[in-house]
Amino acid sequence: MRSLYRYLWLTRALEERLEIIFKQGHVIGGLYRSLGQEATAVGCGYALADGDWIAPSIRDLGGLLARGLDPRDVLRQYTARGTSLCAGKDNTNHFTVPELGILGPISPLGTQLCVLNGVALSFRSRREPNVCLTFQGDGASRTGTSHEGLAMAAALNLPIVVVLEHNRWAFGTPSTAVAAVKDWADVAGAYGVPAVTVDGNDVLQVYDAATQAIARARAGDGMTILVAETYRMLGHAQHDAQRYVPDHELAEWKDHDPVQSFSDYLIEFGFESDSTLDQIRGEVALELDAAADEVLSEGYPAAEEARTRVYGDPSLDAEVPWSRGAVPGYEGLTSGKRGRPAAGLEGA
Ligand SMILES: Cc1ncc(C[n+]2csc(CCOP(=O)(O)OP(=O)(O)O)c2C)c(N)n1
Ligand SMILES: [Mg+2]
Q1: Residue 236 in domain
Q2: By residue range, what is the domain housing residue 199?
Q3: Residue 94 phi, psi dihedral angles, 5° rounding
Q4: Fewest CB atoms within 10 Å of the CB: 118, 119, 243, 287?
Q5: In degrees to the nearest 10, what's the CA dihedral of 30, 36, 54, 157?
Q6: Does the residue 53 lie in any domain?
Q7: CB count in 10 Å sphere of residue 30
């Protein structure tokens, strides 16, 4: 329980730190926070074992931290440092770390599940007892590829857990506008798989349900859909002031904060003292101070880096067919008419 609290707090504090450095102008690209729904990703990530794979959406940073991702790698990624996992080529949590079993998000929503099905199928082909777990927002779960992915995972009885993060909003669209089901667990019947609904803001409920669903998948009994009832407390990203969200909704969910309610629970039932939790918060703050100092002193990638690590097979990087630069044969041309490249340079 102490570890769960630590990861919850680390997630919140790291995102707060990211918001500060975003406002200082250090972040390249967007910043999508998971404020108010950290318990879903943390509880799920913590329930996985070595060798399992996790495929996050943009709001599942906590799951990656619980799998062992270094907060410095998160800061490097958001600030596009040369030392970042993508060497500055992509941002947010769009990175894949095979050693930690992390499959990065894929921007067209829903597609990630189809790719993860391939990972799960590879486990089966190699007779490895590993499990895959992925998250889908309520919006993402309405896409065609999501339905394809669910149908395939169910039909092939793949070792997968799909966590449906019902946080009420998909950008500015309320989930009630895109689904006729009231109880989101009902969708599971269409695929012939079980669904479990949990309070996504209660980290212990999430952890317990995820543990059972993962054990079920590992035992060869196939996919479970885990519906996490939660709420997106901020706008879609930093640029979205969420003016379309009714005030009363935010007020109701503010009283159901996953980090605060878990610390209240730990203290009320005597599992932890306030001073222990305070100590954890202090340690996390120091860790993040040091991490931010270190990362912000690191440089951006060198220009040549753009050509490396483009393909899985590094020998192909030398062949990258696109580059910007002067094309021989074009010197001295001034009109809009391109003229013909010198012989042999057609297509250059
Ligand atoms: C197929 C597709 N349509 C639209 C988008 C743009 N888009 C990115 S995130 C997002 C909202 C996703 O909402 P949801 O799936 O509920 O996740 P949440 O943001 O609530 O975590 C949208 C519309 C996209 N990436 N892919
Ligand atoms: Mg949503």
Answers
A1: yes
A2: 2-296
A3: -85, 75
A4: 243
A5: -120
A6: yes
A7: 15
pTM (whole model) above 0.85: yes
Q: Which of 236, 239, 244, 245 to mutate to test the pocket of ligand 1 (most atoms within 8 A of CB)?
A: 236
For β-strands 173-174 and 53-55, DSSP reports them as unpaired
Residues in the chain, overall count: 348
From 113, 171, 240, give the residue whose CB has the most ligand 1 atoms within 8 Å, as the site to mutate: 171
Tokens of 192: 């012939």
Ligand 2 mean position to 294 CA, how many Å? 34
Instruction: Find the 203 Cα to ligand 1 centroid distance in Å.
Output: 24
Residue 342 pLDDT greater than 60, yes or no: no
Helix or strand run (H / E) with residue 165 = strand 160-166
For residue range 236-276, list pLDDT tens digits in order. 999 999 999 999 999 999 999 999 999 999 999 999 999 99
Average pLDDT on 224-246 reads 96
In the predicted structure, residue 335 carries a pLDDT above the cut 70: no
Residue 169 within a domain: yes
- 162 falls within a domain: yes
Atom of ligand 1 nearest to the CA of 167: 20
Which ligand 1 atom sits closest to the C-alpha of 58?
21
Is residue 181 within 8 A of residue 142, CB to CB? The reply is: no
Ligand nearest to the CA of 235: 1
Which atom of ligand 1 is nearest the CA belonging to 109? Answer: 26
Q: For the domain that residue 291 is a member of, what is the CATH number?
A: 3.40.50.970
Pocket-forming residues, ligand 1, beta carbon under 6 Å? 57, 59, 107-109, 137-140, 143, 165, 167, 169-171, 232, 236
Phi, psi of 15 (to 5 degrees): -65, -35
- Distance from the alpha carbon of residue 203 to the mean position of ligand 2, in angstroms: 19
Instruction: Kindly state the tokens that stand for 9.
Output: 């707090």
- Mean pLDDT score of the chain: 93
Total domains in the fold of the chain: 1
The strand pairing partners of 323, in sequence order, are: none
Q: Which tokens go with 266?
A: 């730990």
**Phi, psi at residue 301, to the nearest 5°?**
-65, 150
The model's pLDDT over 60-71, given as tens digits with 9 standing for 90+, comes to: 999 999 999 999
